[in-house]
Specification:
Layout (H helix, E strand, L loop, with lengths): L7 E3 H8 L3 H10 L5 E3 L4 E5 H9 L11 E3 L5 E3 L1
Antiparallel strand pairs: 1-3, 2-3, 4-5
Helix pairs in contact: 1-2
């Protein structure tokens, strides 16, 4: 199986890929520094490989004045 930019991964999977703690990734998702989606229940946060690449490329790990975009359940993109 090849790695695709559109691969969806959980916060735990993203943390493992980046060799960071899951808490760091969850905080980045919650704070809007990393693009992702919060699913109620067991699944929690998800993001894509492309979002991880963009997060790394923009140096957004340390914070930014501009929030990332996330997809809401209805498919609309919103800043938060």
């Amino acid at each position: 199986m090849t790695k695709d930019e559109n691969d969806i991964m959980t916060a735990a999977e993203a943390a493992s890929e980046l060799r960071l703690s899951e808490r760091v990734v969850q905080n980045a998702l919650r704070d809007g520094l990393l693009k992702g989606r919060n699913h109620a229940g067991r699944k929690g946060w998800t993001t894509t490989r492309r979002a991880l690449i963009e997060w790394i490329e923009t140096g957004n790990q340390g914070g930014s004045n501009e929030p990332a975009k996330r997809d809401d359940a209805d498919g609309d993109n919103e800043s938060f």
